[in-house]
């Protein structure tokens, strides 16, 4: 393998390493989003069973919670993107969030597969470079 080929492999490795880092960040974000959606869905299912007098705890930030009563247990505000909120019935919100979670989970699966391919290719390049260094050694 020529010096030029080794240099190209090193360059490809660096680019692929950056791509794998970005994919890893994407997987983390999608994973968090999926978890958040699962929690929201579970909470919405619980809201359907609330009695009128029931108090609920809401996080206020900094490990502080407040006790509240829901005025309207039939409707919730759902972020539909770009910080735009739409009032939906609890059932419609559940349907919307289920669809959104499914699309997030599909993208998460694709991103994990792509990350695994990138990591596998990185290992291949590392092995080739290592073998080349031993030959020259």
Written as H for each helix and E for each strand, in order along the chain, the element string is HEEEEH
Largest sheet: 2 strands, antiparallel
What structural class should be given to the helix and strand makeup?
alpha+beta
Task: Tell me the helix content.
Answer: 55-70%
Low-pLDDT stretches are none
Can you describe what's shown?
It is a single chain. The protein has a single domain (3-136), classed as Helix Hairpins. The protein has helices at residues 3-48, 90-136, and strands spanning 55-61, 64-69, 75-81, 84-89. A hairpin with a 2-residue loop joins strand 3 (75-81) and strand 4 (84-89). 68% of the residues lie in helices and 19% in strands. Helix 1 packs antiparallel against helix 2 (90-136). The protein starts with a helix and ends with a helix. It has 137 residues and is α+β, with helices and mostly antiparallel strands.
Provide tags for this entry.
elongated, two-stranded antiparallel sheet, Helix Hairpins, 2 helices, alpha+beta, 137 residues, 68% helix, two-stranded antiparallel ribbon
At a glance:
This protein has 137 residues and is of the alpha+beta class. The protein has 2 helices and 4 strands; from the N terminus they run H-E-E-E-E-H. Helix content is 68%, strand content 19%.
Write the layout of secondary structure elements.
Layout: H1 3-48, E1 55-61, E2 64-69, E3 75-81, E4 84-89, H2 90-136
Antiparallel strand pairs: 1-2, 3-4
Helix pairs in contact: 1-2
């Amino acid at each position: 393998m020529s010096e030029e080929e080794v240099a190209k492999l090193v360059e490809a490795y660096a680019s692929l390493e950056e791509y794998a880092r970005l994919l890893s960040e994407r997987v983390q974000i999608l994973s968090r989003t999926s978890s958040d959606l699962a929690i929201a869905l579970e909470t919405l299912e619980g809201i359907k069973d609330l009695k009128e007098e029931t108090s609920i705890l809401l996080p206020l930030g900094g490990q502080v919670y407040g006790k509240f009563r829901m005025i309207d247990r039939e409707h919730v505000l759902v972020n539909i993107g770009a910080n735009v909120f739409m009032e939906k019935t609890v059932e419609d919100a559940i349907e919307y969030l289920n669809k959104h979670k499914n699309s997030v989970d599909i993208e998460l699966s694709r991103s994990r597969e792509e990350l695994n391919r990138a990591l596998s290719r990185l290992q291949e390049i590392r092995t080739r470079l290592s073998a080349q260094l031993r030959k020259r050694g």
